[in-house]
Amino acid sequence: MKYRKLGKHGIKVSAISLGGWLTYGNSVEDNVGIQCLKTAVDNGVNFIDVADVYAKGESERVLGEFLPDYERSDLVISSKVFGQMSDNPNNRGLSKKHISESIEKSLNRLNTDYLDIYFAHRFDYHTPLEETVRAFNDLIDNGSILYWGTSTWFPSEIERAYGIAKELGLRPPSVEQPRYNLLDRYIELELFSTVNYTGIGIVPWSPLAQGLLTGKYNDGIPEDSRHSKVNQLPDRELNDDVIAKLRKLTEYGKEIDLSLSQLSLAWALSREEISSLITGASKPEQVVENIVAGDITLSVEQVNEIEKIIDNEPQYHPIYNRVNYRNFKRGEI
Fold it and tell me: What pLDDT, on a 0 to 100 scale, did the predictor assign at position 325?
């Protein structure tokens, strides 16, 4: 496993990391989740990402059961704060009250004294940004967290937080966690420039496009997939043109001895702005397959061939759509 610096910062994270978004404490039995975590760490993964809102704390709880079996300092553990955790109007967002109370609950569920990284899971349009920056800075001062980051923030919002922190002598965000994969390249448009300016790292979620880049959907939606029950894939991501390209990528992967998932992960890691890719897995064998990509370095020719096959330019993510943005600002997304 290769390890990369988190942007300009000294902490190093495994190129492939493991996340618990749709799995641990939710769709995957606890014992299987523990097996996935053990397989990942035993094969060089040091970065594990969860959030308080994942299965309403259950993802953190499963990870908390796993942590005592390992040396805490060997691992980089992150969680997130923002989502609505109860009917209490103050039990959401990025106010000092919610951040201060949420970190204590997360640490208890995770069975640890501190988080390496604490993410602001979304931008809070209802709380002054200075209040949020100060709240995260206070957590660093009291030892509850080592670094703080953002998740799915607009580049301009990250730059504002960075500017406020610098002006007030506070710690700025160290990392952003956006959606990024071979089919969804929107962060190349602006975020790459922002991270190059601020020195923060990027640790994308959904690097396999919710399973599309595993080859599982090359012949349509399988009956045993989560999308067969509730199709979460919009037409822009799952259509005949995309499927045809995925089949071509699969064949190209065979030529260079890589599965479609390994090829897709290695392609994303060819971007020097990327610190780590947060992968999901519901079986230990999926963990092993993904980890292989952490040791792969594609040649320039291979990267060019992959992009020639997929034939897509970075486009703005639908979240930039005016209607979605309005709902997002209201807190409805």
Answer: 47
